[in-house]
Amino acid sequence: MTRWWQRWRRWKEQRVLTSRPIPDPLWHYTLARYPFLARLAPSDAQELRRLSTLFLAEKEFTGAGGIAVTDEMAVAVAAQACLPVLKLGLQLYRGFVGIVMHADEVVARREVMDETGVVHHYDEVLAGEAMDGGPVTLSWYDVQQASESAEVGYNVVIHEFVHKIDMLDGVADGIPPLQGRDEREAWATLMDEEFEQFCADVDDGYETFLDPYGAEGVDEFFAVSAEAFFVAPADFRLAHPRLYIAFRDYFRQDPAALSA
């Protein structure tokens, strides 16, 4: 039996899809611009467009430093952000509204206390950031370079929005929302094993397919793995076959099969 709120939500979504559609030329341009989107099956591309349209209606874009957010920018972000939730739904992104666009990387002032209680200050250069309970910040330069950077498994939009998924249980620990303790424990065990081996390879100076930034913590390892899974799936599967299977099952997508 369909409940009233389900009917209301469908009516609301249909109203958005009808009144605020993404123009055909802009959508086709976006797909053509990013090869990891262009290779989607027609039915999946249609669903991505639907989710992107609803995403744009739910989120608020703000330009920082004088940058004006254009329709091209907003649709590029929406399409890439919706790729990880293509089979999971937009409810994973409903805990925040704001997306802040910068023209390029930004420098953030950081403060950290060491084990002895001494506070250290340092600057960190960021292409993006996902704030727990707050907005997502993105560098437009990095967003629009996503086609070229896909070759090395890099995608700032997917990275930051996967962080948002990771944060849904209240802590960024590399574990997305999963059903049941056994499933969570199996995921955590696999991530820990892969993360430890990855850190050892980075420490030993080996060249890794994934960005060495993933060694900063298991949350970053999860994010860099996810971006590679979607934009460079064949190479990611070769480098991390067990992780590929886990990501395939969780996200319910098999991007390496599309790129074969």
Provide the descriptors you would attach to this structure in a database record.
single chain; 260 residues; alpha/beta; 4-stranded mixed beta sheet; two-stranded antiparallel sheet; 13 helices; globular
Structural overview:
The protein is 53% helix and 12% strand. The strands form two sheets. The protein has a four-stranded mixed sheet. A two-stranded antiparallel sheet has the order 3-4. The chain has helices at residues 4-19, 24-33, 35-38, 42-58, 71-82, 140-144, 146-149, 156-166, 181-203, 218-231, 233-239, 241-251, 255-259, and strands at 60-63, 98-102, 106-113, 119-126, 128-130, 136-139. It contains 13 helices and six strands. It is globular. Helix 2 crosses helix 5 (71-82), helix 8 (156-166) crosses helix 10 and helix 11 crosses helix 12. With 260 residues, the chain is α/β, with parallel strands linked by helices.
